[in-house]
Amino acid sequence: MKFTHVDCGDCPIRHRAVCARCDGDELDRLNEVKYYRSFQAGQTVVWSGDQMDFVASVVSGIATLTQTMEDGRRQMVGLLLPSDFVGRPGRDTAAYDVVATTDLVMCCFRKKPFEELIRTMPNVSQRLLEMTLDELDAAREWMLLLGRKTAREKIASLIAIIARRDASLKLHENNENVVVDLPLTREAMSEYLGLTLETVSRQISALRKDGIIQIQGKRHITIPAFDRLLEEAADDSDGGYLV
Amino acid sequence: MKFTHVDCGDCPIRHRAVCARCDGDELDRLNEVKYYRSFQAGQTVVWSGDQMDFVASVVSGIATLTQTMEDGRRQMVGLLLPSDFVGRPGRDTAAYDVVATTDLVMCCFRKKPFEELIRTMPNVSQRLLEMTLDELDAAREWMLLLGRKTAREKIASLIAIIARRDASLKLHENNENVVVDLPLTREAMSEYLGLTLETVSRQISALRKDGIIQIQGKRHITIPAFDRLLEEAADDSDGGYLV
DNA sequence: TGCGTTCCATGACCTAGATCAACCGATGAC
DNA sequence: GTCATCGGTTGATCTAGGTCATGGAACGCA
Fold it and tell me: Where is the domain boundary, A95, A111, A144?
């Protein structure tokens, strides 16, 4: 068994997802059940409770997983950035609303045959286990945020999380003047953080007034000193620094 | 390859954990790296950041996973009941404090050889994937609770969750007079729910005054009508009913 | 028998964040 | 060119839950 790092067939990105360690034969089998789908910003990929006959990884764009209560209260429970994986082998209805917040391209795998591949390709099931464990860690970090952080800390944490995720693409010298484009509306942020959108808006303004962040337009943020943002986030996780 | 449901060697329970589908040979290999550990109530299994050279499943008793911030704020991120699994293949330091809240017996597997078994025994890695996905679902339900539920709803949800978990052992006719023994102190409940222990105490009193629950002693609870508790919990998940 | 300690309940008060409301600029349809 | 909509900001006010403080029951222990 070869262990090579290769792209997933003709996917435009090197998936963190399902095939990082598969060899040629295995990729052929994955490719057989693979197809692409595109969604426009705002479009719903699936509604909670609906049939979901595929699993997928994000190629480009951003999507959210959201839970809704009967009276309309909403809580985001997952944020899908490029290379993230959605879908649950072994379940055939979606447990959450999946919504594209920007234009979105997903690399989908038909569920039934994919489940068969998991059974017969240990590389795929191990990769999936690793990714799921990572997501569980992220969910638990998020639980700390929801349960114990103040509004200001929540905002600072969110900005730091997003900055870290797309920082892997860019280079920053000395963690100064890090630039982020928020991919979420104030409302989506409030659903992420368990706040109202007014509180989100106010706290962003407060961070700006205190010089922690600078804002150009509504979504474009410059962070003069990333360390100071992390202090505001009360973020003692060691993965604190970019790059 | 046989697929049989067997106990894990001489474990006193049928693990939901790692070996539900393994056959004789595979169980032998699991047994080679297996050992038991007991802990007293209150004892710490591992501290966050410490070496953790095993993974384990709970045989009896209850343990909690908790994250602590630098200033002492604490958030529980996992509640381990019998048959639950702890430990992260592929990491060698614990990410959370693991504390026994009652006397606890764990069935441990030495990490290094266990990781090897995952690589070579697809049954084990698939079982682990299923369990991790279940935990991720639970974590996301928990996020909804932390982010959007009121104190009263949080308490009702917690009681319902615990009732459901140990209800699988007992029989209830018609979901009436369900009995639960809370395995947690008021403080531990507050760490679970993202509240203070005073609020927990007050809300439990309120549910008692409103006839949703009855209390004998401090921890023993009778639920006259489980449906009414679920309404209080604002719990629209379909797994709502016992049994 | 008295004395800590642990766990829990409840009262008095305060504050962070929710709620309600007004307003602004950009965009796009007709 | 006007009007409606969407995303965002900010102000005024309210309240759920936090904070601080007191007391009480159960338990172990010398």
Answer: A144
A136/A162 same-domain check: no
Q: Is B237 part of the contact surface with chain A (CB cutoff 8 Å)?
A: no
- Closest by Cα among A141, A159, A2 to A78: A141
Judgement on whether residues B51 and B127 belong to the same structural domain of the protein: yes
Who has greater pLDDT, A163 or B14? A163
Q: Which of A90, A118, A144 is the last residue of a domain?
A: A144
- pLDDT confidence bin for B243, thresholds 50/70/90: very low
For the whole model, what pTM was predicted? 0.89
B73 touches chain A (CB under 8 A): yes
Q: Is-contact B164 B213, C-beta < 8 A?
A: no
Question: Which one, of B71, B74, B120, B122, lies nearest residue B97 by Cα?
Answer: B74
Number of H helices, E strands in chain B: 7, 11
Check CB contact of B143 with chain A, cutoff 8 Å: yes
* Beta-carbon pairs below 8 A across chains A and B: 116
* Contact call for A194 and B148, based on CB within 8 A: yes
Q: What CATH number is attached to the domain comprising A65?
A: 2.60.120.10
Asked if B126's CB is within 8 angstroms of A125's CB, the reply is yes
pLDDT in tens, B17-63: 565 566 667 777 777 888 889 999 889 999 999 999 999 988 888 99
User: pLDDT grade, residue A207 (50/70/90)?
Assistant: very high
Boundaries of domain holding A62: 24-144
A6 three-class SS: coil
In a shared domain, residues B116 and B204: no
